[in-house]
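We include the entry.

. . .
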Amino acid sequence: MDINLSDDKRAAAARYSRYAFILGIVSLAGLVCCFPVMPVVGGLGIVFALISRGGANVFSPEAKKGLTFSVIGTAASVVLTVAVMAGSVVYTLNQLKTNPEILNEVRQTYEQMYDSMGQEVPPELLETLDRMEEYSRELNSR
């Protein structure tokens, strides 16, 4: 911290450094159970670490740790969230390809949805579902 800072600014900087450190640890610990929300927590930790500098040119040791933990927690949570979403999409598409019962449910859902709107199911959608059913039958017959 800079020697020229007033006592009030030093106290505020120390408080924000503590907030950054706590939020950094929470962003790392939260990866275990609630990683999709951790970018928000880690982002706040980064903001508090930057605010803790106040008028000084350097970070306090506590703010440096908080900044490091927050950046790691934020990056890891974004990577985990994207990986889980991609895995879900791949799994769902794989199930659609290999399970004809799910395709029938999808077809019925679309028919009900369009029927409730008073419209016909678009022929392109029906053709796509037909092709998926054919492909599924081919895969299951192998």
In short: Helices lie at 7-29, 38-52, 61-98, 100-116, 123-141. Residues 111 and 117 are 10 Å apart (CA to CA). The radius of gyration is 26 Å. The chain has a mean pLDDT of 88.
